[in-house]
Design goal:
The chain is an alpha+beta fold and about 140 residues long. The protein has a single domain (about 5-105), classed as Gcn5-related N-acetyltransferase (GNAT) (Aminopeptidase, 3-Layer(aba) Sandwich), CATH 3.40.630. The protein has helices at about 10-25, 35-40, 85-100, 115-120; strands at about 5, 45-50, 55-65, 70-75, 105-110, 125, 130, 135-144. Strands 1, 2, 3, 4, 5, 6, 7 and 8 form an eight-stranded mixed beta sheet that branches. Helix 3 links the parallel strand 4 (about 70-75) and strand 5. The two termini are about 30 Å apart.
Length: about 140
């Protein structure tokens, strides 16, 4: 059994999400989070999918970028849970949140290796390949 919920910057859930983001997204690239980077998370909406023991398995961050657009950032799934459809469940919940709050478009800077995941969710590649955090990315977008 899983629960999906939003949480705030600085909460215990947020700390779990930062740990998951570090483990899955930053550590493999040899990168750390700076305090300044994490402080940018404060106004954002944070979502997580949790197991029955309240452990976070998937997380993402939603940033309002104006013009009815919502940027999906820092999507991370625990490596032991990948391929089980949990990322899709949380992404679907994020889309529902976006629709309920009047957003018309969701977009992300997707790692090239993650682009097949976003394509399955209905996102389209809307940019040329570019480098971010030292690896190839695309801007991907979905109209809600």
């Amino acid at each position: 059994m899983y629960t999906i919920r939003t949480f705030t910057y600085g909460s215990a859930d947020y700390k779990q999400a930062v740990d998951l983001r570090y483990k899955e997204l930053r550590a493999p690239l040899g990168l750390l989070f700076t305090n300044a980077e994490l402080q940018k998370d404060e106004p954002d909406v944070h979502m997580g999918l949790f197991d029955e023991n309240n452990n976070i398995l998937v997380c993402l961050t939603l940033t309002d970028t104006g013009n009815s657009k919502l940027k999906v950032r820092q999507v991370a799934t625990d490596s032991n849970q990948q391929g089980k459809g949990l990322g899709r469940k949380l992404s679907d919940a994020a889309e529902e949140y976006a629709k309920q709050h009047g957003y018309l478009t969701m977009y992300c800077h997707a790692r090239k290796v993650a682009s097949p995941f976003y394509l399955k969710l209905g996102y389209k590649i809307v940019s040329d390949e570019f480098t971010e955090v030292g690896i190839p990315h695309y801007v991907m977008e979905k109209t809600l």
